[in-house]
């Protein structure tokens, strides 16, 4: 099927379908006339992509998840690609949380020290947001 038909069947604009293709989320062959030609499985793939985008995942995340996706919802099977990618993402999030906790603690220490030194003797400052 051509891009217009895929767009009609999925409710997704053609420019979004081209974006999915550019991101490696969707594959199309080229016909002799140069037009994109999608297989019947593209309808399900686009529905999976839409559901995963709706869950707040990035196209990069979705690229990792799609090999492990089944069904329209989709269900994610714990295949090695998925598990490795999600473990890596979890590790990065934990590192970010640790850095944020250190920053929070340091800022709290500065506030405590400033209050002990007698911040009431100075005019109030306007802090940038």
List keywords for this structure.
about 130 residues, 2 domains, two-stranded antiparallel sheet, about 5% strand, mainly alpha, Multidrug-efflux Transporter Regulator, Chain: A, Domain 2
Notes on the structure:
This protein has 129 residues and is mostly helical. It has two domains: 1-77, Multidrug-efflux Transporter Regulator, Chain: A, Domain 2 (Orthogonal Bundle), CATH 1.10.1660; 78-119. 59% of the residues lie in helices and 6% in strands. It contains five helices and four strands. It has helices at 3-10, 14-22, 41-54, 59-65, 80-117, and strands at residues 29-30, 36-37, 69-70, 75-76. Strands 1-2 form a two-stranded antiparallel ribbon. It is elongated and about 80 Å long.
Topology of this structure?
Elements: H1 3-10, H2 14-22, E1 29-30, E2 36-37, H3 41-54, H4 59-65, E3 69-70, E4 75-76, H5 80-117
Antiparallel strand pairs: 1-2, 3-4
GO molecular function: DNA binding
InterPro entries: DNA-bd_dom_put_sf, MerR-type_HTH_dom, MerR_fam
Organism: Amycolatopsis magusensis
Provide a quick synopsis of the model.
59% of the residues lie in helices and 6% in strands.
> Which architecture name of the largest domain does CATH use?
Orthogonal Bundle
Major sheet:
2 strands, antiparallel
Strand order of the largest sheet: 1-2
Mean pLDDT: 87
Helix content: 55-70%
Strand element count: 4
The ordered H/E elements are HHEEHHEEH
Class per helix and strand makeup: mainly alpha
What's the CATH class of the largest domain, please?
Answer: Mainly Alpha
Q: Which overall shape is indicated by the principal axes computed on the Cα atoms?
A: elongated
The poorly predicted ranges are none
Q: Whole-Å distance between the termini?
A: 52 Å
Number of helices: 5
Domain HTH merR-type: 1-68
GO molecular function, one term: DNA binding
Keywords: Coiled coil, DNA-binding, Repressor, Transcription, Transcription regulation
Pfam family, one: MerR_1
